Amino acid sequence: MPQLPERIGDLTGDDHEDDLFCQELSTRNAIVEEGEIDRAVIDHLLRDIGPAAAEKGGDLFLTATSQGRFTQGTTMTGQLRG
Q1: 46 lies in some domain
Q2: Less crowded by CB within 10 Å, the N or C end of the chain?
C-alpha cells in the first residue's frame, strides 16, 4: 500500500513531552477521506496499469523492475544501488 510520510514538527528535547505527543499521534486516524489528497500525489503513488495504460505506452501488468522509479535509490549502508 503506498503511503506518504509527512514531517509535522520537531522534537522538543523533553523526552516525556515528546513521548506524550507520539502517543497522541498514534491515536489519530491515518486514513484520509476521498478527495483530501491532491491528484498529483495520487498519480505519483499509484501506477496506471492495464490495457488502456498499455495502449498509451504504460504497463499492462503490475510489475516491479530494477529500472522502475519505485526501485531507485540506495540502502542506508550503500551496499545496494538501484
Answers
A1: yes
A2: N
